[in-house]
Amino acid sequence: MSILGLRGSLCAVALGVAIFLVVGTSSRHQNADESLYPRKDYSQDVGKIYHDLGCWQAKRKDYKRAIKTFSYALQESPDSLDLYDQLGRAYECDGNKTRAFKTYIRAIARNQHFSDVRFGCYEDDVYSGDQGNLLLGSSEVWKGQTVPNKSLLVYTPESDADTVMFLRFIPDVARKVGRVVLVAKPSLVRICKSLKHCTSNLEVIDTSSCLATLPQCHCHVALSQVPAYLNYTYQNVPGRAAYLKPDQAVVKKFHDAVFAKDISLKIGIALDASKNLYRDINVLSSLVLDQLIKCSGVMFYFLPTLNSDKDGDYKIESIVHHIKISELKNAGKCVDVRNLCRDWVDVAAILAHCDVVIGLDNTVMHLAGALGKKAIMLLPEVADWRWMCYSEGESSVWYKSITKICKKESTPWDGLVSRALKIALAADKKQAVKF
To answer: Which residue of 28, 48, 233, 352 is 20 to 30 Å from 414, comparing CA positions?
Structure first.
C-alpha cells in the first residue's frame, strides 16, 4: 500500500471517530436537557397548546388575547367543557357578560354536569340528548320549535339549584307545545306545581314513580337545554322578578307554629354549602355566627338544605358551630327551623316570612330569588358559572332581588360578612308575609 493510501485510510478513521464523539456528546447533552427540562409533546394536540396558552394569558390578565386563544382551542376540541368554562370566565373578566352568558348556556346545553366543571366533579363527555329514548318514551328531541299539537316530556337536572333556576323557562316552553310533562325529584314536586298558576298545560311527575308509568310524549328535552334552544341572552332572561309562589296553606302553618309572635326584623341564614365551592367554609361560617351574636333587635332563622350529601357537602353541625348556635338560642336571637322542612315547599314558606336572607347555599338562595325575596349571596373568589362572580356590586343575572358580595384576592371574609349584615339590617320589614 502506498503512503498516500495509508494516510487516506487513517484520515477516514479519524473523521469517523470525531463524528461518533460529536454525535455521542450531543446526544448526552440532549438527554440531560430533556431530563432537566422535560418537553411536552404537543405534536398531536393543538387544542392543548391553545388551552395552556390561553390560561397563561388569562393569568397575566390579558383577557382579550385569552378569549381569542380559547376560541381557537374550542375549534380544535369542541367537546371540552373546561374550555367553555375558561372562555366564559375570560369574557366575564373582560366585562363582556353577554358573551359570557351565551358561552355558559351553550356549555350546559351540551352537558348537565357543566355546573361542576370548575371543581372537577364532572365527566367531560358530550351530553347526548337522546340517551334515554326507551326511558323517556320518545325518540324526538325538542329544540325550541313551536308544536302546539304535541306533548313534551321535560326532565330536570340532577342539581336542585339548577332545577329551581331553570323552572323560569317552563312557561315559555308551555306556550310552544300542547302539553308539558315535567319530571322532578320528590323534594321538588310540590314547588314545581306552583308554576301551574301561570301554566295551565303543565303536569308534574315524581321521579320515584315507576318509569313504565311515565306518559308517552311526542318529544323530550332536558330542562337545562331549554335556554340555549330558545336563544336566551343576558338581556332577555325571563323571570328576573318572582316566578314561584309559596303555598299559602303551608305559609299559614309556619306562621302559626313559628312566626306568629315575632315582630322583629327576621333574617334567614343559609350556611350549608359545598366544600368544593368554599375552601374556607369553616372560617366563613364561624365569622357569620360570631357577627350574628353581636346583633340586637333581630331574629335569625337557620334555613335547611335538602340536597344529598353525596359529594361531601359541608354541614354546620360541628361542635364549635353547635355551641355558637346554642349561644344564639339562649340569647333569644335565633330559631333553628332546619328540622321542620321535608321539601322545598316548606323552605319556601319559611323564606316567605323572612324580611331578608343571607346565604351561601346555592339552592336556598336560588329559591329565595325565585320567590322575589331580598337576599345577599356571599361568593368565594371562584364561584360556579351561575353567579358570574366577576361582577360584584350588582344584582344577579337571574334575580333582581339578590345582591352579590364577592370575595377578591387578599380580601378577608370578616369585612364582607359585615357588609352583608349591614345591608340585611337595613331591610324593610314589609318584605315578610303578614297575617
So the answer is: 352
**DSSP letter (8 states) at residue 273:** B
Which residues, 6 or more positions from 82, have their beta carbon under 8 angstroms from its beta carbon?
51, 117, 124
Which residues lie below 8 Å from residue 50, measured CB to CB, with a gap of 6+? 69, 70, 72, 73, 76
Residue with cell 380544535: 76
Place of cell 361542635: 319
Q: In angstroms, rounded to a whole number, what is the distance separating the alpha carbons of residues 366 and 373?
A: 10
Q: What is the rounded distance in angstroms from the CA atom of residue 253 to the CA atom of residue 312?
A: 33
User: What does the pLDDT read at residue 383?
Assistant: 84
Q: Count other C-beta atoms under 10 Å from residue 144's C-beta.
A: 16
* Low-confidence residues in the chain, pLDDT < 50: 1, 4, 6, 13, 15, 17, 19-20, 22-23, 26, 28-37, 42, 124-134, 308-314
Q: What is the C-alpha to C-alpha distance for residues 248 and 243, in angstroms, rounded to an integer?
A: 15
Give the pLDDT of residue 110: 87
Residues in the chain: 435
Please give the C-alpha separations between residue 98 and each of 21, 103, 239, 272, 422, in angstroms, as whole numbers.
Answer: 63, 9, 17, 30, 31
**pLDDT per residue as tens digits for the range 218-240:** 999 999 999 999 999 888 888 88
Q: 358: which residues sit within 8 A by CB, 6+ positions away?
A: 267, 268, 269, 270, 288, 375, 376, 378, 420, 421, 424
What pLDDT is attached to residue 151? 93
What is the C-alpha to C-alpha distance for residues 323 and 320, in angstroms, rounded to an integer? Answer: 5
Q: Which residues pair with 140 in a beta bridge?
A: 219
**Using DSSP, how many helices (H) and how many strands (E) does the chain show?**
16, 11
For the chain, state the CA radius of gyration.
Answer: 29
Measured in degrees and rounded to the nearest 5, phi and psi for residue 127 equal: -75, 130
Domains of the chain, first to last: 46-118 (1.25.40.10), 133-229 (3.40.50), 248-431 (3.40.50.2000)
Cell output for 115: 355546573
- The pLDDT assigned to 132 comes to 45
Of 250, 138, 233, 151, nearest to 191 by C-alpha is 250
Whether the full predicted model's pTM is greater than 0.90, yes or no, is no
C-alpha dihedral, 95 to 96 to 97 to 102, nearest 10° = -150
Cβ neighbours of 317 (radius 10 Å): 10
